[in-house]
Amino acid sequence: MEISSMNDTICAVSTPAGVGGIAVVRVSGPEAIEVCNSIWRGKSLLETPGNIARVGSLLDTSGEALDEAVALVFRAPRSFTGEDTVELSVHGSRWIQRETIASLVKHGARIAEPGEFTRRAFASGRLDLAQAEAVADMIAASSRASARVALNQMRGSISDKLDELRKKLVNLASLLELELDFGEEDVEFASREKLAEATGEITEEIRRLLTSFRSGAAIKDGIPVAIVGATNAGKSSLLNALTDDDRAIVSDIHGTTRDTIEETLEIGDYLFRLIDTAGLRETSDKIEQMGIERSRMAMSRAQIVLYVIDPTNFTELDLSALPQDADVLRIINKSDIYHDHAIDGIHISAKTGEGIESLRSILADIAARKTNEGEDTVLITNARHAAALEAALGSAETLLNGLQTALPSDLLAQDLRETLHHLSTITGKITTGEILNNIFQNFCIGK
Fold first, then answer.
1. CB neighbours of 291 closer than 8 A, spacing ≥ 6?
2. Distance of CA 323 to the CA centre of its chain
3. Does 249 score more than 50 pLDDT?
4. How would you class 342 by CB atoms within 10 Å of its CB: exposed for 0-12, middle for 13-18, buried for 19 or more?
5. Cβ atoms within 10 A of the Cβ of 182, count?
6. What is the secondary structure of 374-386 as a DSSP string?
7. Rounded Cα gap, residues 54 and 369, in angstroms
8. Distance CA 119, CA 3 (A)
9. Within 10 Å of residue 17's Cβ, how many Cβ atoms?
10. How many Cα atoms are found within 13 Å in the side-chain-facing hemisphere of 437?
11. Could you tell me if 332 and 309 are in contact, meaning their C-beta atoms sit under 8 angstroms apart?
12. What is d(CA 77, CA 304) in angstroms, rounded to the nearest whole number?
């Protein structure tokens, strides 16, 4: 998408594809109001103040009445894009939607490219890049928690935190630059000890933001839950019971599950990615061995592990592949036929459903604790942001080491500028056309 093309007036259907009661056609650009007024019959849109809705009729490409509609006018800069914008609410017929777009194009608009409305909001300063990406996350949110995090990011939670860090870094940079300007006089404008202390605090804050990516990604994409255990312990039955669906094949034959099976489950505010794994046991079957290896890989990525145990045939398994921060729940299955609670754990029956609701509640409680999602918590959910923070952390640690080992001011200033650069790419203070294209081409058309 060329920057020069952003002077055009664009249009697109902003509601999802398909048939519904109402569809919204969005028009934005310098001639948005004029173009819409050309196909409008009713009180003139040219004379309509901003944030006012009008009821009237739309005309098709031949000038015939097409539909009764509502036109909502937004005048620059008080609109999503910062430009003159009109949102036409028409009836949801696909044909009406197509004809409305065709009529707008005939009168001077062009069809918007994916993400072009949001890109214009970024270009006009209505949103920074982190907030623009949060728009896409809000559209794709699959749980209350992911929508809540995206909304906070749209409101500037990440941007505010990064601005705070940038101000601190700029203050440090000004002190170092002054030393460079007066280098011949051997002047020190701030003690290295105080600079190191301030840099250490900034470094720790960057590290905390980067560490939050694990929790943020889990909220956005679903918390990975590995269901592991010996063959025939009831892992597939547990997956089916949790999801209320016969997703996995259940059989008395050992080694029925040869590969991992994934299913998503929403419990309370959170989305979970349940991974049913092949039973862990010694086997000479090469295909089953591959499934077991994939099981161990799933265990290594899991944040929660449901260790399913058959109390009638129990042998402790090696769970050394688990990450240190994984929560392991021992699930004692088959409580419908085995009533002895000698083995410690959560007793359920995947067959009858006994204890399943309690297990769902426990999973929701763990999710709330692991994601550490509070009102003032800033969580990183975007992989691009995490990569930039990782680069910024490396530069900040180099800067801190340089301050502690008395490196010259010019080398310290370079490390500091690199830290600032990496942080600035997150919000778009420093960016490139290639980065913008990669981000916005993944948006849906009309947003």
1. 255, 257, 258, 259, 260, 277, 278
2. 23
3. no
4. exposed
5. 13
6. -TT------HHHH
7. 48
8. 10
9. 12
10. 6
11. yes
12. 47
Count of residues in the chain: 447
pLDDT score at 317: 75
CA distance 392 to 388: 6
The rounded Cα 311 to chain-centroid distance in angstroms is: 40
Neighbours of 196 (CB within 10 A): 17
State pLDDT tens for residues 53-111: 999 999 999 999 999 999 999 999 999 999 999 999 999 999 999 999 999 999 999 99
Per-residue pLDDT tens for 330-348?
999 988 888 777 788 899 9
Q: Would you say 97 and 13 are in contact if contact means Cβ atoms under 8 Å apart?
A: yes
Q: Determine the Cα–Cα distance for residues 268 and 276; give it in Å rounded to an integer.
A: 21
Q: In what order do the strands lie in the sheet with 10-13?
A: 40-41, 52-59, 65-74, 85-91, 22-28, 10-13, 110-111
Return the amino acid letter for 214: R
Please give the C-alpha separations between residue 101 and each of 17, 52, 110, in angstroms, as whole numbers: 14, 22, 9
Q: Which of 105, 135, 106, 108 lies closest to 120 in space, CA to CA? A: 135
Structure tokens at 308: 């399913």
Please check whether residue 218 is in contact with residue 273, taking contact to mean a CB–CB distance below 8 angstroms: no
- The contacts of residue 93 (CB under 8 Å, 6+ apart) are 19, 23
Q: What is the 3-state secondary structure (H, E, C) of 371-427?
A: HCCCCCCCCCCCHHHHHHHHHHHHHHHHHHHHHHCCCCHHHHHHHHHHHHHHHHHHH
228-368 CATH: 3.40.50.300
3-state SS, residue 122: helix
DSSP state for residue 442 in the 8-state scheme: T
Three-state SS at 119: helix
Give residue-wise pLDDT tens across range 380-401: 999 999 999 999 999 999 999 9
- Token output for 383: 């992989």
Containing 52, the helix (H) or strand (E) segment is strand 52-59
CA distance 419 to 168: 12
**Looking at residue 265, what DSSP letter applies?**
E
CATH hierarchy code of domain 3-127: 3.30.1360.120
Radius of gyration of the chain (CA): 29
Phi then psi for 355, rounded to 5 degrees? 80, -5
> Is residue 153 within 8 Å of 134, Cβ to Cβ?
yes
Domain segments of the chain as ranges: 3-127, 144-218+382-428, 228-368
CA atoms within 13 A on the CB side of 270: 26
306's enclosing H/E stretch is: strand 304-309
For the domain made up of 144-218+382-428, give the CATH fold. Answer: Four Helix Bundle (Hemerythrin (Met), subunit A) (1.20.120)
